[in-house]
Amino acid sequence: MNIEQANAEAVERMMEARPVLVGLGKALDVIPGMHQNLLLHAGPPITWERASGPMRGAITGALIFEGKARNEAEAEALVRSGEIRLEPCHHHQAVGPMAGVICPSMSVYILENKTHGNRTFSNLNEGYGKVLRYGAYSEEVLAKLHWMEEVMAPVLADAIEASGGLDIRALLAEALQMGDEGHNRNKAGSILYTARLAPFIAKVAPNPGVAADVLKFLGDNALSVLNPVMAACKAMADAAHGVEGSTIVTTMARNGTDFGIRVSGLGDRWFTAPVATPKGLYFPGFTAEDASGDIGDSTITETAGIGGFAMAAAPAIVTFVSGTPKDAINTTLEMYEITTAEHKYFTIPALDFRGTPTGIDIRKVVEKGITPRVNTGIAHKDAGVGQIGAGLVRPPMAMFEEALIAFAEQYRI
Amino acid sequence: MNIEQANAEAVERMMEARPVLVGLGKALDVIPGMHQNLLLHAGPPITWERASGPMRGAITGALIFEGKARNEAEAEALVRSGEIRLEPCHHHQAVGPMAGVICPSMSVYILENKTHGNRTFSNLNEGYGKVLRYGAYSEEVLAKLHWMEEVMAPVLADAIEASGGLDIRALLAEALQMGDEGHNRNKAGSILYTARLAPFIAKVAPNPGVAADVLKFLGDNALSVLNPVMAACKAMADAAHGVEGSTIVTTMARNGTDFGIRVSGLGDRWFTAPVATPKGLYFPGFTAEDASGDIGDSTITETAGIGGFAMAAAPAIVTFVSGTPKDAINTTLEMYEITTAEHKYFTIPALDFRGTPTGIDIRKVVEKGITPRVNTGIAHKDAGVGQIGAGLVRPPMAMFEEALIAFAEQYRI
Predict the structure, then answer these.
(1) pLDDT tens digit sequence for A365-396
(2) Contacts of A324 in chain B (CB under 8 A)
(3) pTM of the predicted model over 0.90
(4) Is B176 within a domain?
(5) From the centroid of its chain, how far is CA B129?
(6) What is the number of domains present in chain A?
(7) What is the ipTM, given to two decimal places?
């Protein structure tokens, strides 16, 4: 067995995947295996008992949104009884930022990888402030979710259809030339996304007032495009998954309690370890004491060669996640140590248009003692509060070591 | 007389100027001194006899647009006879890119400097391809100008009014964190501009089809915001003009034949010298042989501390104007040698958020033998052709020497 060859094939598939945003539909209708009593969540599998504060908050909010619970106690009872099931987004070709909770009646973006044909999904981004994905579920949070679902989603669905689809790989490549790294800085990508859809939104909206409201919501939210970007990265990572003999990481995800990875040549098995707490900058009034453990599927961006791995493209991000522009450059440079390829389509102007470090090799992580670099939002540890900062974090080394041992066993090396 | 103090005052006024896009109106109605038989143009004063090919082409196109001529011969006769007058945009608080021709019935952006109260103007950007500002005047060019004037301008005027005004200094500061330098790379600024106006455009357009067309025109044109940006820089430079004893440059502009500068402490006198030809990258089928001399008022961007001076913020621009990302950094670093201040509001993430080099001092230019760095589009030398490339150019040293001698004479140094 030739591991190098297997990895080259996996990373080639990852880079050649071309995910296009082709539509928007109800999770229940479009996500494979979704059903009325299922909630999807970020990271590896989790139970209510072990779930973090923000995860419990988001589950509660989703069940209120579905009309199945009125408060956290009712939500807890439904989940503990098994009447409501919890499964990872990643088991359903989906990803969600932070708590990543997707419920049956939420609309989700539909991405199609035009090269290999696989589909992926992600929910709509709620913007900043009090939001479900950070575990908040006040009336204000629910009211916004209802507006997004009842007013914005139909317009977005028609606009995406009228546009004929948006090539998210091309949009990301452009955004990396405009100071984004695609994970915590999606400012350029989000306005590119808004500007591209704007003519179609104006055309399909039921009236000019709704068109204006939707355009303002998308244009004011510097994370509008994060969810389609995450689904695009998931489509790329999935395309690289299942290559016999490959040591390339195809999933990195956190549920607030455990970090989990999956590896191309090791099937659907999760390797997990307790999450760390991110280090970063806190909003006024909050400190590291208030922080939840690392949470969210958004590390799918680093898995696909952007996010923390592309920070050299986004020096201005340090005002948000801490550090200096030089640290941002160094973060990218370090990631070349543990990856297999330089991305063909995602390039960094400041590094003479060098491709981003792509395709994490668990062998290199363990041999060099270098874990991936991830940048992330920071949630409050209690349910119902929300975002309190942003920063940097590394996944635990133990998962990579465990995966490498499993690889040696499976392939009898 | 304290020159340092005078320069500090001039550059402080330049940086504290806060130009806001407040409206759109017909040149005839809003530009001071505009009249039915007047055309404004880029650069210092010029006659038909000495005008370059692209300048003649743009004058011809403008007179066809006004219904005053049917071809170049008729346009030439009108201008030579004195029936149609030519005057610099700069004499009327206005600026225009490339040939910079503004005729009475064209709509122009109105900028107001909220700090010092002065107003400035610029025309609408036509996008790429065959366009008047590069000297093209085919039917296609005229048809687009008529659509812009009759369909887009009324919508833009209402949208800008409904928005309550757009702070262009703030928009530029944001765009410099997103890979723009504000002269030849305005990709981020243009979509920020489109996204900010989009909700208002959707609301005020006569119907959804027109809203969609206007949004598409603005969103597809990576130079949409160039003209408001130029007018904003003109407002900043004008605020710095007229400070007794100041050696700060407040105008740099080219008409395709002559480069001209004006200096804060030297009144309205132009110092001119023959333009150079830019060095850069040519579109397929064209070479340096085909290039017109340097042309346009867009060097108002460098005058105000952005454009070529901010290239370190925009490493991706080298794919358009030639060179490497390192050259872009070095261009900015060199400009600190001939300027007075580091901009308070325009900062460069890659240089640890250092302010852009701002306020060109003619003393430093002459003493150090370093002329300003300018990046620019390149026009074909013949009327009627259009853009053939983009590159870099330096203004002639002779103007700065002449201005310094005049300064010594005027102030008896």
Answers:
(1) 999 999 999 999 999 999 888 899 999 999 99
(2) 352
(3) yes
(4) no
(5) 18
(6) 2
(7) 0.94
